[in-house]
Design brief:
8-stranded mixed sheet; 6 helices; 10 strands; two-stranded antiparallel ribbon; transferase; single chain
Length: 271
């Protein structure tokens, strides 16, 4: 007789209500928001910042695994199998044969992608997990405002056919860099991904507009929405209800309230 208790394990994502569409998920997690608030606080530098980023991404990746990845039913012997034929775990696990590509967008995305890569290797069959690398830089004008982004180099280890392609990038500001990187995978890399998912710590309304316009198929997971430069009538409304009025970027395209330049602080490189 087989116990079916764990043959269909329910998982319900806890997320903030919003009006940005079904592919946007603003994760509602008090613990992670507390850690993120500390991460963004003035005076938080190395080594604390990397430890916080790692903590945040471990939980964010777990959330995506639970919510998005397919499962399969297994019958696995436990250590009790030698003493009783009932010593089997029978139930769902995350399908270990799902292909995954995590993309390191240097430099702020290097540690998040490595955390994602390590966790995927510990959860799935490592032979179907890969990490790619892209060097990108913002293009700025004479007033130091961001006007675009360009790819300086890339190391892509193969096709992405039927793979989950993950972009763990902490700050979703303008969306320009990430949109360019996603376009590279859609247009230049062989194969059709099963899903493309971004994993962000902070996003702005401008980022969400850019991403949902350029890539409406992309799934976005974020811990926090920052819209601190919006007019007063926006505050207190559900995110996206007054999307056209929401603003989270200053004139130099920095997020407000934000956390400053994560890439600079994480690498002790203020250039």
């Amino acid at each position: 007789m087989r116990d079916t208790l764990y043959s269909n394990v329910p998982f319900k994502l806890n997320e903030m209500p919003h009006h940005y569409g079904p592919h946007v998920h603003l994760v509602g997690n008090p613990f992670l928001l507390t850690q993120l608030a500390t991460l963004c606080s003035k005076g938080v530098i190395q080594p604390q910042i990397n430890r916080l980023v790692e903590t945040l991404y471990v939980d964010l990746v777990k959330t995506v695994l639970n919510a998005e990845f397919p499962r399969k039913n297994v019958s696995l012997p436990t250590r009790m199998i030698d003493s009783t034929p009932q010593g089997l775990y029978q139930g769902e696990v995350i399908d270990p044969q799902v292909r995954v590509v995590t993309v390191n967008i240097a430099r702020a995305g290097t540690l998040p992608s490595q955390v994602t890569y390590d966790l995927m290797n510990a959860t799935l069959d490592p032979t179907v997990v890969r990490q790619d690398h892209i060097i990108m830089s913002r293009m700025i004008d004479a007033a130091e405002a961001v006007v675009g982004s360009e790819i300086g180099g890339a190391k892509i280890g193969g096709d992405v056919d039927d793979a989950f392609v993950l972009f763990p990038d902490p700050m979703g500001a303008t969306g320009g860099s990430l949109s360019t990187a996603i376009s590279l995978y859609k247009n230049k890399v062989p194969g059709t991904p099963r899903r493309i998912i971004t994993l962000n710590l902070i996003v702005t309304p401008e980022y969400l507009r850019k991403m949902t316009t350029d890539h409406p198929d992309v799934i976005i997971y974020a811990l926090r929405l920052d819209r601190g430069l919006s007019p007063p009538e926006v505050f207190g409304t559900e995110p996206g209800a007054l999307w056209e009025k929401e603003r989270g970027l200053d004139d130099r395209q920095y997020i407000v309230p934000g956390g400053g330049g994560f890439g600079e602080i994480m690498n002790n490189a203020y250039v």
